[in-house]
């Protein structure tokens, strides 16, 4: 019993020490977004716990909508879907205008609210800066292969559901620049020039915002898209980036 008490006490001390370290670290850098307990603000630079906070919005649809509103994201609500184990009650569809610069094609597809929030931050902090860096212009359209799909994890007849089954995932196929230039995962991922570098850059940036980011480097099933999802895995969640 004494041993258990000592272990528990050591755990409490370690947790307090970690909290103090994080607070000092964030204060010295002037970055409150690097703390796990500070409120999420979609307009702030990406912090150490931004991805975790985005995934946690799965449990709070009103808060997620409020964050989209605060950030000036234009969207419409989608009717809830209840299909047994599949479905969602927090679906939104991007609408024209607002603070985002890129449209989505097809435009009719919606996602869960946390995915919409993460996509917005991804565009502002990763996609558009990378497009300007490599091509001197912005991304006008982001092409995708869909979000909601009632199915298991790819390639499994049984087992856990895919994050697509709750619209908590989206598959990005490519990008269209202002001048009409197309950049696709299937055609340009292996490119050693600006197109390939851009695609790998936006993949790497997505890894900080999404719980799971899978690219052609993961397996053949992802040869034509980036899989982005917001699977919730706890406060100090592990992330998958391949």
UniProtKB/TrEMBL annotation:
Q: Record's superkingdom?
A: Bacteria
* Record-linked InterPro entries: Extensin-like_C
Q: Which residues form the Extensin-like C-terminal domain?
A: 63-242
Name this protein carries in UniProt: Extensin family protein
Q: Which organism is it from?
A: Sphingomonas alpina
């Amino acid at each position: 019993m004494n041993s258990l008490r000592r272990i528990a006490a050591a755990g409490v001390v370690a947790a307090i020490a970690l909290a103090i370290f994080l607070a000092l670290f964030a204060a010295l850098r002037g970055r409150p977004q690097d703390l796990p307990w500070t409120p999420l603000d979609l307009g702030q630079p990406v912090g150490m716990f931004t991805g975790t906070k985005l995934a946690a919005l799965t449990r709070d649809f009103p808060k997620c909508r409020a964050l989209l509103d605060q950030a000036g994201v234009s969207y419409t609500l989608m009717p809830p879907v209840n299909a047994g184990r599949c479905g969602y009650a927090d679906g939104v569809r991007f609408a024209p205008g607002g603070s985002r610069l890129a449209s989505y094609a097809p435009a009719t597809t919606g996602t869960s609210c946390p995915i919409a929030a993460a996509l917005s931050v991804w565009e502002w902090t990763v996609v558009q800066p990378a497009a300007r860096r490599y091509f001197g212009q912005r991304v006008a359209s982001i092409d995708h292969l869909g979000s909601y799909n009632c199915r298991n994890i790819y390639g499994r007849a049984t087992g856990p559901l895919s994050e697509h089954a709750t619209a908590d995932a989206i598959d990005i196929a490519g990008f269209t620049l202002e001048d009409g230039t197309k950049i696709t995962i299937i055609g340009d991922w292996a490119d050693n020039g600006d197109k390939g570098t851009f695609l790998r850059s936006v993949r790497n940036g997505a890894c900080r915002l999404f719980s799971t980011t899978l690219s052609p480097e993961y397996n053949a099933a992802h040869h034509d898209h980036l899989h982005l999802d917001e699977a919730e895995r706890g406060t100090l969640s592990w992330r998958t980036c391949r």
